[in-house]
Amino acid sequence: MDCKKFSAFVLFAGFLSISLSSCRSSNGKEKEIVIDSLPKPANDITLPGNFSTQTKLKFDSIAIPAFFQQYPLLKPFEKDLIGFYKSRTFTYAWFDQKGLIEQAGNLFNRIENISDEGVTVQLLYEDEFHKMMDDDSTEILTDKANPTVELMLTAQYFFYAKKIWTGLGIKGMKESNWDLPRKKLAYDAFLDSLLEQPSSAFMKNEPVFRQYGLLKTFLKQYRSIEETGKWKPIQPDQKTYRLNDSSKVVTEIREHLFLLGDLASNNQSHLFDAELEMAVKRFQQRYGIKDDGIVGQSMITELNYPLSKRIEQIIVNMERCRWLPVALNNDYIVVNIPDYKFHAFENDSLAWSMNVVVGTVLNKTAIFNGMMDNVVFSPYWNIPASIKNKEILPAIRRNSNYLEKNNMEWNGNMIRQKPGPWNALGKVKFLFPNSHSIYLHDTPSKSLFSRDKRAFSHGCIRVEDPKRLAMYVLRRQPEWTETRIDSAMHAEKELSVKIAKPIPVFIAYFTSWVDREGRLNFRNDIYKRDGRLAEMMIENSKLK
């Protein structure tokens, strides 16, 4: 599963653009070098032991080098394969006394339909694999234990696991500006556990973040819509469409919403009725648009977005799911940048959410993780050196009363803004040490939270309900009552409070996901990262 940001408008006269970089440092330095504080995860899947029950049928270990000599493109998986069979003392995994077990056919089907997983890959030795798994094949008898078939199945499993459960390598993650910790998987142990499962359950509990399977279902649905050829651009003949309007364009809107599942049935009526209005609201909620039930230009734009690009959007977010821990099973915080949302989780279940403001396109909020360990009430704003030198000092030369007028003071050779209602960080900030010098904080500028698009800051994350967040992170410290938190937020003196049990924070980037109601959501790719990731996936698919 990890500041899941300041605007360019003035806080008061003479304070133009100073707040833009207010979150760059919590100590007055322009940049801190701090190691991201979330511990690197251990293996998500740790399943020791041998689980398949067959122990009598064995093959000679010399079959392994002979196999890779015959099928050299699978050689990258040789180490995994040898480790797997050494732990089994070279007993067959895919055969019993009656021949191939049913799980072998299930694995074959998954590999044959690997495109359902949102990847485009060249299968290795596809024709040979077909012949091995063909019941009518006379070349290789699969009713008897066969070491070549056995090793092909295991090698293909490791190929599948790498492509589907791992995705792009570390380099690809870094090029995507994704600094969250990558999961680790013990594939050989996981394969052992799979072989223990009944065939009907084979590979149902995959070692991927749960959003992956949900997105995979919608990928299939959207591809089916594309295949129908019914998805046509809408040509509006008026600016808006609302309840009781009548137009042939209403019929086109109705068809789109029916295909997407927002409208249960399509009566092909020209009348914008109450049922269609509810469908429009459902669509707007899924796309992060104001859900007023009115079809305006912004919604027409979303409806006309090429279906192929929506499919690509689903696929790249499935790839991001491959990188995340399978489950955290504890409390944590997620900020999803494209959704402008903060989510608090308790025991890996969503507890509550709120709006946030994130970084502008020029000042992108980083994708990373940390451990929130400190709450600072009534904080000073330690002004970064770059702002001091470029803006504050010239302002002081023009007006000797500038610092006093803006509630600022010298602090050594640095300048800071005093706690109070004028402070650019608001009444409280939340620290999680990280190499990006980013944190969460309050803001005196509340109006931006009501906007659909909230990318206004210089990287840090402004939270809509800082009091609730303070109560959440200090809830296990009974001395910090609501009354005491209120008092600390309105004090004239800065107060730093250690969080008794630090909370993992994940700053993530998902432009598509499935919500708790089972609805597919899309958001704008505000930092233009989806397209590059799609290109990298295509490049990766060419690698054997």
What does it look like?
The chain has 3 domains: 18-40 and 328-510, L,D-transpeptidase catalytic domain-like, CATH 2.40.440; 63-206, no CATH class; 216-308, Muramoyl-pentapeptide Carboxypeptidase, domain 1. Helices cover 34% and strands 14% of the residues. The chain has 17 helices and 16 strands. Mean pLDDT is 80; it is low at 1-22, 24-52 and 136-140.
Distance between the termini: 29 Å
Could you state the CATH homologous superfamily of the largest domain?
Answer: L,D-transpeptidase catalytic domain-like
Quickly name the level 1 CATH class of the largest domain.
Answer: Mainly Beta
> What's the number of domains?
3
Contiguous helical run count: 17
Report the sheet with the most strands, covering strand number, pairing sense and barrel closure. Answer: 8 strands, mixed, barrel
Structural class: alpha+beta
The share of residues in helices is: 25-40%
Report the count of strand segments. 16
Q: Estimate the global geometry from the Cα principal axes.
A: globular
What fraction of the residues are assigned to beta strands by DSSP? 5-15%
What are its keywords?
17 helices; eight-stranded mixed β-barrel; 544 residues; Muramoyl-pentapeptide Carboxypeptidase, domain 1; 16 strands; 3 domains; single chain; globular; 34% helix; disordered N terminus; L,D-transpeptidase catalytic domain-like; three-stranded antiparallel β-sheet; alpha+beta; 14% strand
